[in-house]
Amino acid sequence: MKLCITPQNPDLVEGLSLLGRVCDVALVSSADEADVVVTTAMQDKGLTVLYDGAKDASITYSSRVEFFRGVSYLLSGKAVQVNEQAHFDSNGFMLDCSRNAAPKLDTILETLANMALMGLNMMQLYTEDMYMLEDRPYFGYMRGRYTDEELKAVDDAAFALGIEVVPCIQTLAHLATVLRWGAFSDLIDCNDIMMAGEDSTYAFVTEMIAKMRKCFRSRRINIGMDEAHMIGLGNYMKKHGVRPRVDIMCEHIARVLDICKEYDFTPMMWSDMFFHLAGGSYNDADTKIDEAIIDKVPEGVSLVYWEYYCADKGRYDTVLKQHKQFKNPIAFAGCAWKWNGLLPELKFSLSASRAALTQCLANEIGTVFATAWGDDGAECPLNVVLPVLQLYAEIGYRGDDVTDEELAARFADCTGADLEDFLLLDKPNRTTENQPAIGLNPTKYLLYQDVMQGLFDAHVDKATFPAFFAATRDELRAAGERNPKYQYLFEYEASLCDLLSVKSVIGVDLRAAYLAGDRDELRRLTDEAIPVVEEKLQAFVDLYYDGWMRENKAFGFDTVDLRLGGLKNRLATAKKRIGAYLDGRVEALEEFDEVRLSFDNRADDPNADPNTFCNTWTRIATASLI
Questions:
Q1: DSSP E strands: which ranges in 295-433?
Q2: Beta strand pairing call for 188-190 and 193-194
Q3: Residue whose C-alpha is closest to residue 446's, from 617, 623, 624, 576
């Protein structure tokens, strides 16, 4: 779609160019060349779009990102009349760059363009050690860390689109990839937690925050500090003895806040530690926050309530009200599940987000954002989370009564994709109807488990899995044809299903043939079925590689290679071991002689759902040490 903007506005030119990365929009200088002539104007609040479905449109907006959201309404080619106003001051997305997948600059710019079309105005860029500290060469070493130029390019593009990039770092815990190096050994309290109270720690934190100021315009910074459960219990305790951990935490926060102030940052931090130190958790509606703890928390920091596992409006309301006991501004971080293995959890993410955002509106929370963590290697592609971002945008502008049909229409406008097709990306993990829990991930453990020592064999439904995965493969391929822009996401999952249609049961079949003494079947499986698994595995590896390199830097794919390469080698070893048994060179296959136990220690119930959960490759692949 060729747009002519009148009056011409140089502030919109670069942003419109960036939109061209994700949709068919181009700026032209004359009305004669244009498909649509857009009259623009500024107003104090809100977004108004009038479009006749033909040549003429007007967009009146109060912020730059609202203009680009206005453009998205034109892309359908249908007449529209829109009047809406942002209900949140800041509404956006946290992009995890620290779990092996380091999105390329182009990928981040595409994400920003998608966000702008939706009208989201904040990106939190989560970088533990994924940026350069000139005097610390081991910081982010071999991890795909971003240069200053890359970070500034992200910030410049976001600014052109009307999006604030809030740097999101860690200044206490979650620093395992840093503290693994001997160069940082003097900073360790225990595990992945830095030593509070040490001048060397605050010199390090100063370098981090100074770099964020150098690269980003935002006056806000997320300083992390979540899940530091062992603070003060390692080297700190050896040096200082036992002290109240809430005192250690608050003293550390105060020093980090002083550094933030020095660099003109207003900080926010995850709030969970205060609840844990109070003797409760987010999951406990009865948690009482002692006034003494409330008084210790410095007022100059916003507290971010994060919740990813709940779709209960009442619980969100309770915990938000618990947070409001503090004297600090409150923000909310919700879920765009891509951290559960190789697939997203979109339907639950949408359900949880509706509940959460409804209560954020009711409790007048000003800042909300969806998180897309990459636990255990960031195996799941990034773009699967787009439906969740769309929901954040629609509730952010329209309120909490957005229908599924309205969401689907807006998703089509902004992404050119079909929402129902995207929701199929959950399906390979849904081997049964009405699964009893969220987050079950059979595609991950069925992929990685060993064919001879299958730790999840007790969770295989031999009667249904092959047909289920084959049928789901066909559905995904058809959906990919309907969504060519995102076809790679569907083809990747279809290939995984194609592989699992045979691999999901082969370990069970091999062991059954062995225990039955059916040497002919064992030889057939070894000579015919295992090679089919190997062939389909290679096809999946190739698609996985293509998708990774499309979205991410090369760093981090080494982990994928080690995992899938190990699987390839174990298949070769299985053929060798079974061949030796069939040829009489070994008397027994002790791997198959072992009784198969359930992975989750469940009772023996033939009517129970077979699926379980494990998102740690080292626990899936082997019971031995890695």
A1: 302-306, 330-335, 367-372
A2: antiparallel
A3: 617
| Residues 397/419, Cβ–Cβ less than 8 Å | no
Burial of 85 (0-12, 13-18, 19+ CB in 10 A): middle
Query: CA 616, CA 523: separation in Å to the nearest integer?
Result: 32
Give the single-character DSSP code of 440. Answer: -
Residues 6+ apart with CB under 8 A from 28: 2, 3, 4, 34
Instruction: Give the per-residue pLDDT at 328.
Output: 95
The alpha-helical segments, DSSP class H, found in 22-89 are 64-74
* Assigned token pair, 486: 């995102």
Q: Name all contacts of 541-546 with Cβ < 8 Å and 24+ positions apart.
A: 543/488, 543/491, 543/492, 543/495, 544/492, 546/488
Tokens 């989370």 locate to 385
pTM: predicted TM-score of the whole model, two decimal places: 0.97
Cα–Cα distance, 345 to 412 (Å, whole number) = 20
Task: Name the token pair of 31.
Answer: 């009305």
Name the pLDDT band for 279 (thresholds 50, 70, 90).
low
- Domains of the chain with bracketed CATH: 2-84 (3.30.160.230), 90-415 (3.20.20.80), 429-621 (1.20.120.670)
Average pLDDT on 115-119 reads 98
Residue of 467, 492, 463 whose CA lies nearest to 480: 492
- The answer to whether the CB of 482 falls within 8 A of the CB of 418 is yes
Cβ atoms 138, 47 nearer than 8 A: no
| CA neighbours closer than 13 Å in the CB half-sphere of residue 423 | 12
φ, ψ at 175 (rounded to 5°): -125, 35
Cis omega before residue 7 (within 30°)?
yes
**CA separation for the pair 581, 571 (Å, rounded):** 15
Those residues whose C-beta lies under 8 Å from the C-beta of residue 592, and which sit 6 or more positions away, are: 452, 510, 511, 514, 515
Residue type, 32: D
Residue 56 near residue 36, CB atoms below 8 Å: yes
d(CA 543, CA 564): 12
Q: How far apart are CA 502 and CA 416, in angstroms?
A: 34
Nearest partner of 379 among 344, 353, 418, 350, judged by Cα: 344
> Residue 303 is which amino acid?
L
Percent helix, percent strand, percent coil in the chain, to nearest 5: 50, 15, 40
State the DSSP H helix or E strand holding residue 59, giving kind and residue range, or none if neither: strand 56-61
Dihedral, 15, 16, 20, 24 alpha carbons, nearest 10: 150
Considering only CA atoms, which of 285, 281, 284, 330 is closest in space to residue 303? 330
Give DSSP secondary structure letters for 593-621. Answer: HSPPPPTT-----TTS--------HHHHH
- Amino acid identity for residue 593 in this structure: D
DSSP 8-state secondary structure symbol assigned to residue 12: H
Residues in the chain: 626
Instruction: Round to the nearest angstrom and report the end-to-end CA distance of the chain.
Output: 54
Closest CA to 443 of 518, 504, 388: 504
The whole-number pLDDT of residue 247 equals 92
**List of residues 6+ apart from 588 with CB closer than 8 A:** 581
pLDDT, one tens digit per residue, over 189-239 is 999 999 999 999 999 999 999 999 999 999 999 999 999 999 999 999 999
Beta partners for residue 168, in sequence order = 126, 222
